[in-house]
Amino acid sequence: MRILRIKVGDLERTAIRLPQGLLTVRALGEAAGRSWPEELPALLETGALADIGAWLSTERGTRAAASLPPLEPVGYESALLIRRPRKVWGIGFNYLSEEQEQDREKWESEEPVGFMKPDTSLIGPNDPIVLPAGVGRVQAEAELAIVIGAVCRDVSEAEAYRCVAGFAAAIDVTAADVHARNPRFLTRAKSYDTFCSLGAELITPDELGDIGRLTVTTALNGEARHSLPVSSMIYRPWRAVAYHSRFMTLLPGDIILTGTPGAVPIADGDRIECRIDGFAPLANPVRERE
User: Fold this and answer.
1) Residues 236, 212: contact at Cβ < 8 Å?
2) In which domain, by residue range, is 69 found?
3) Which of 33, 213, 254, 268 could cysteine-pair with 148, CB 3.0–4.6 Å?
4) What is the largest CA-CA distance in the chain?
5) Structure confidence by residue, pLDDT tens digits, 37-48
6) Same-domain check for residues 135 and 243
7) Domain boundary among 46, 78, 110
8) In which region does residue 270 sit, left (phi positive, over 0), alpha (psi from -120 to 50) or beta (all else)?
9) pLDDT tens across 26-70, in order?
10) Above 90 in pLDDT, residue 123?
11) Is the pLDDT of residue 194 over 80?
12) Among candidates 204, 119, 138, 221, which has minimal Cα distance to 166?
């Protein structure tokens, strides 16, 4: 499934993309005679998202959904997928270059760099990244985000996929000069308001197929700057979930940022993009604080 968070007028809704177009969870619930929650974390926590998928797979659900009028594209805007996740966890230095691939076993023996970002850093598609005054250089990077779908604690890599609701595009932003002063300042450098953009679209694993074949690209002002496949990750998605579940309970709606193929410096007037195969591009303008 493809689940989108959208803004219709002054209200935010969750919608499902079907062959005929986009239908809100509310409209689907009315057609099904169900009362499904509309916030994505609640859809995951209650199992309602799986219930929607099961209903849509029935002949009755297919017919009912096909009879509903889809939203007109001019009638909505993309919105931030999850506003209040319990955790946003980032992985650093997670991609191997072509040269480093020759020594993958060595790199896979290393523990990942980790950091957390507050939910106050979150913005959605087309929201501005605001550069704080006096912090110096700021960098941005495209990332594939994992969205947790079920309570997950101490699972194996083989079991990890059961804990994942899906994937989303993301842009991680860092105050590079703050981090350069001291490596211990990494989380602070990542935590400024607007320093984490999350796309509007969640794509479930079954919809994507082989995750390793996806390519993640950091683009600046329309130009691709860095691009690598997910298969180049040291901690690929299922391994990343399993590893982090060893020391913290992962909860529905939690987000894991899986690292970047490369960062770019950003400045006032720039437009930064995350491009991932099969996803709508995620883009944000960059503005100085007024």
Assistant:
1) yes
2) 2-78
3) 254
4) 61
5) 989 999 999 999
6) yes
7) 78
8) beta
9) 999 999 999 999 899 999 999 999 999 999 999 999 999 999 999
10) yes
11) yes
12) 204
- Mean pLDDT for the chain overall: 95
Residues 241 and 144 in one domain: yes
Among residues 224, 236, 219, which one has the least CA distance to residue 284?
Answer: 219
Helix, strand or coil, per DSSP, at residue 25: helix
Q: What is the pLDDT of residue 13?
A: 95
> Are 139 and 193 members of one domain?
yes
| Cβ proximity of 94 and 244 under 8 Å | no
Residues 112 and 64 in one domain: no
3-class secondary structure, 235:
coil
Quick one: DSSP state of residue 99?
A: T
Q: Has residue 13 been placed in a domain?
A: yes
Closest CA to 127 of 164, 83, 163: 83
Q: For the chain, what is the domain count?
A: 2
Helix (H) or strand (E) holding 206: helix 205-208
State the average pLDDT over residues 200-205. Answer: 97
Answer whether 84's CB lies under 8 Å from 251's CB: no
Residue where a domain terminates, one of 78, 100, 124: 78
pTM to 2 decimal places: 0.96
CATH of the domain at 207: 3.90.850.10
Report the half-sphere exposure of 130 (CA within 13 A, side-chain side).
Answer: 14
